[in-house]
Amino acid sequence: MDKSQIPPAPYFDPQELRETLSALFHAHGTAAEARPAVVERLKLLVKAARGTARLQLEADGNGRRCATGLARFQDELVRLLYDYTVWHVYRATNPSDAERMAVVATGGYGRELLAPGSDIDLLFLLPYKQTPWGESVAEYMLYLLWDLGFKVGHATRTVDQCLKLARDDTTIRTSLLDMWLIHGDANLYAELERRFRNEVIRGSERAFIDAKMAERSERHRRAGESRYRVEPNIKGGLRDLHTLHWLSKYLLGHEVGPETVAKGIFTKEEAATFRKCENFLWTVRCFLHFYTGRSEELVSFEVQPMLAEKLGYRDKGGLRAVERFMKHYFLIAKDVGDLTTILCSALEIQQMKSSPVLESMLSPISWMTRRQIREKTDFRIDNGRMNIADPDVFKRDPVNLIRFFAYAEEAHALIHPAALRLIWQSVRLIDDRVRNDPEANRIFLSLLTAPGNPEATLRRMNEAGVLGRFVPEFGNGVSMMQFNMYHHYTVDEHLLRCIGILQDIERGGNDEVAVASDLMRKIRSEHRPVIYMAVFLHDVAKGRPEDHSIAGAKVARRLCPRFGFNAADTELIAWLIEQHLVMSTVAQSRDLSDRKTIENFAAVVQSVEQMKLLTILTTADIRG
């Protein structure tokens, strides 16, 4: 259908429907007798509205417009039900001040965005105590909504009750943060809105920030790096955006936009990125709900090809359409993570500035370390975070983009948001001259093989865009998935997790990798950097037309001399990458009791040392 022929939200004429429902009521004589006919007519309305919203989505691919349209439809439907209820079912014959009500949207609905399968959160707001009239109106409306197939979260409360519960419960407070009046008594709603900001929000900003940061940390801890799982849950990315939205509303009274830019919380580009991410995720979510016919949030292998087709992706450059779609999805997830990191870091620093005691507790870096960094480098420690000394540190010497992470690792310092912003803006300074710089490569190899926490450092570099720029072959795998069941994560996430597992193997003490840990202690000391580099590069050629093991070996032969490996070690790394699937293939698909199987495998591994290294690599790969 031509987009110009699709009616705009709310997709129906509210006044015409009011007249239709009134006519049905009068035709049947009583509310009870009219109810079946009213419900049937409203079911047709809901079906038609959702059909129109789906046509609009398929015509323009704008999920945020779809979500806004569905929220507008829901508004008009709630107003229609309220008017029908108070006009025809529970009309107040002698209305008193107590028989006032405001119907308020809260939670996700209060943000004026609804997916096709979203819950509807409603607050029936009363001036004083509950009255029979108020209870009856709310109950009648709820039963109508349930009969129409909506999942409704609801509460009937007075203004005082709302404020008391909001003070005591962060979840309720967050829900009310996005409230807005759908219908009913505007003065009653205005009282709640005014008192909520004055009596609940004011003075509680720090506690709210702490609570939201703790929620986010716990959510990420429970889910792990789920945003990079090849079957991601879309609510994870949206929830992080919601956290940014809530913090902005709580602190500034505005959603992410011009006001947050004016206050210096976000740059103009970051606010635009927020909107871009929000639009993309809502588009995927709306298509997902329409396609599955339910509030499905898992972007599973089953639905990924459909979403790729609906969003217009095509096969290109050795990647299937579904893989290109998912790469875009994971790049959006990365942008969401970057925005969340920036805001949470900035807010934490603001808190430390206003509380010297808090800063001393959260900044365990010694004064000696701070002084050495300030005097000997182009960096400094600000509020316990590694920062830049001036805005030109990376222009002056682009190798500083690598040094920065080395000093942060050495000082065990988090990254200052100002530095992170400048790094994002400066990554293009990493060119072939930097990639071939001996010091830059020496620093990188030392970070990769550091006894501390190389996975965390490499992850920081990856999230800042530095790792993929310094090692473009790794960069090609950033946010890339392959449409199969062999790995649970994107290529870059898998490689970083494997480095973490190799750390665990070397550290020892984990019975699940005890054999590999024993072998790690027995390999030749000069082969320690070899196994770390082999693990880092083993899947780096994924997504190419040729076999990724063979292509990866070619990449290793080209890259490893740059990192300072001699010819023998370079060839050993290339061999490990080319053969990294052999051990698992033999173990899973060959008869290990057959002597010929063992002889063939021994011919491939050639030596005990190479078998040790291959076993360690295979263990890390399988567990990553």
Descriptive notes:
The chain is mainly alpha-helical and 624 residues long. Helices cover 65% and strands 5% of the residues. The protein is built from 32 helices and seven strands. The chain has helices at residues 14-28, 31-60, 63-89, 107-110, 132-147, 159-168, 170-177, 186-201, 205-223, 234-252, 258-262, 268-292, 304-310, 321-353, 356-362, 367-376, 393-396, 400-411, 417-426, 432-435, 438-448, 454-463, 466-470, 472-475, 491-507, 514-522, 528-537, 548-559, 567-578, 582-589, 595-605, 608-623; strands spanning 102-105, 120-126, 152-158, 180-184, 379-382, 385-388, 414-415. The strands form two sheets. A four-stranded mixed sheet has the order 3-2-1-4. A hairpin with a 2-residue loop joins strand 5 (379-382) and strand 6 (385-388). Helix 2 runs antiparallel to helix 3 (63-89), helix 3 crosses helix 12 (268-292) and helix 10 packs across helix 12 (268-292). The longest helix is centred in the middle third of the chain and has 33 residues, at 321-353. The chain starts with 13 loop residues before the first helix and ends with a helix.
